[in-house]
User: Which sequence fits this backbone?
């Protein structure tokens, strides 16, 4: 298998060992829960997580101003309720815990169970569920993808401002329906735990509307020039995003070189200009990946002063660069 | 071609357009020269560059505390002397200009010609040449690879401290022979300007000691477990690095996911521990890439307080994260 790994059963533990060697602000507890070494003494604690394979999400966002804990499941596999409960108990300081969950059946179920278990131990817990992927038409079934990183950042900012658990949940519930993403892939992810590719695709084709686990998208097409690909993605997003001022994330899927993300950025900018949209902030890089999938996703959020401030306030995460 | 590009003739210009859209602190002059919008009013100006395809190097390091300009050649092609001269003239403020050049014949020749042309215009110019790749045994022929990024950072730091051109050159000449790198690849880069892969390799093999343009290395081997790969790389580096305290860069080659760079980090750390080496600082990420090549390089620098301070002082580059 063309991977820098030792053994498929050690992928997650080796990755977390390596991450905490280079990033001195975090540590691993309960085998797969990443927390800040300096636990926050007050304020709502923000917990997220899910299957691994999306690095730097989620563990890389455990940092001042973002997450207090990330619960890391095996590759593309939801973490179990007991691990989520460990995370909640480790970070709660009496001001309550907010769970940021991507909308996948396993994640939603396991985070919900953990919430119930924590509440039985008198910890205040609330949950928000991210469903930003417009490639799925049924809004209740929409997957949580790269827009989740915006939720991590805004949640961490609001917690640091001293907002209450109820207020943070309320503000995020207003923000969530405005975050819209869509992705595409040129190549599938090679899943280290199985040695299998996430999907089959020939050398001439691409998948539009793909999920971050290689889930089927809107359409399989012959590969096109990047400007035409961008046109397809923007068309889907602008069916739902009506704001004139936007914040835009150009997210690499794991194996896409920065040069190509920059080229995508040029055409997104050009086409949004043509549609009289004004981009107030760009985020370009690998934020929510799918192992070594080649491809890109776009996330649009309507600009507001409040969201801009929340996103541009500094964090100690080495992976949230603006 | 499985690439997010429009036209191969536009790869460089599209990339620079996109880069300067998302990164508001830089701009393009003379078509392919990236400079800081806020030109430094005093102090030595640091200029680097070379062929493109190594992003974020070099343009991404044009930032406070690092480079004042990056001269961007076409993919894997040296920039021409006239462009280098444009960069020198754009950034010189009377305190002189230092050129940081990777040891490739075309780069060395063209930067040298530009230096001579600038000197004829009474601009003080000095050059340092980076030759950190231990995969080449003849030291005079060694390629400049990921260690170049350390030179950018230290040079920018010394310039900001107000050191003279002569002093910066002298300090870098002391540092340069201590920086040692070696790389490996699982897959070749797909070169957008030709549509060809940089080299041929089968599904079971890897190349040890590869250069950042896919140049042949020390040995073609069957793919091994990451701990054995790391052992090979470290063995080559420790032939030359005798210090007990080190600074280590684990550099992705462009298509290597962060999860795998973290796994590499674990085994580098473990094996250096076994050899009683103490790593004082880790840099893990994509610093000097080879388009979409999958692979990793390691760079070792002996730790000193001075180098540590130079590397950890903040820069405004979004791509130099420590």
Assistant:
């Amino acid at each position: 298998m063309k991977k820098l790994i030792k053994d498929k059963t050690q992928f997650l533990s080796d990755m977390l060992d390596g991450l905490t060697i280079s990033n001195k602000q975090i540590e691993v507890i309960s085998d797969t829960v990443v927390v800040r070494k300096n636990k926050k003494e007050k304020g709502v604690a923000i917990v997220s997580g899910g299957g691994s394979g999306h690095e730097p999400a989620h563990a890389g966002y455990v940092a001042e101003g973002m997450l207090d804990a990330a619960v890391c499941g095996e590759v593309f596999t939801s973490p179990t309720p007991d691990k989520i409960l460990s995370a909640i108990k480790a970070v709660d300081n009496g001001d309550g815990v907010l769970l940021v969950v991507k909308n996948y059946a396993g994640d939603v179920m396991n985070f919900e169970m953990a919430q119930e278990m924590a509440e039985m131990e008198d910890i205040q817990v609330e949950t928000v569920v991210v469903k930003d992927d417009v490639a799925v038409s049924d809004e209740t079934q929409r997957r949580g993808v790269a827009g989740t990183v915006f939720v991590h950042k805004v949640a961490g900012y609001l917690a640091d401002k001293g907002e209450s658990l109820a207020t943070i949940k309320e503000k995020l519930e207003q923000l969530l329906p405005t975050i819209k993403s869509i992705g595409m892939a040129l190549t599938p992810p090679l899943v280290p735990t199985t040695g299998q590719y996430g999907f089959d695709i020939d050398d001439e084709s691409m998948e539009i509307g793909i999920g971050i686990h290689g889930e089927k998208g809107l359409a399989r097409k012959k590969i096109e020039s990047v400007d035409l690909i961008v046109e397809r993605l923007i068309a889907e997003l602008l069916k739902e995003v009506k704001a004139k001022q936007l914040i835009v994330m150009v997210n690499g899927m794991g194996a896409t070189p920065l040069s190509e993300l920059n080229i995508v950025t040029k055409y997104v900018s050009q086409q949004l200009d043509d549609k009289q949209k004004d981009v107030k902030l760009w985020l370009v890089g690998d934020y929510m990946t799918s192992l070594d999938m080649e491809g890109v996703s776009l996330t649009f959020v309507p600009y507001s002063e409040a969201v801009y401030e929340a996103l541009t306030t500094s964090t100690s995460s080495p992976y949230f660069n603006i």
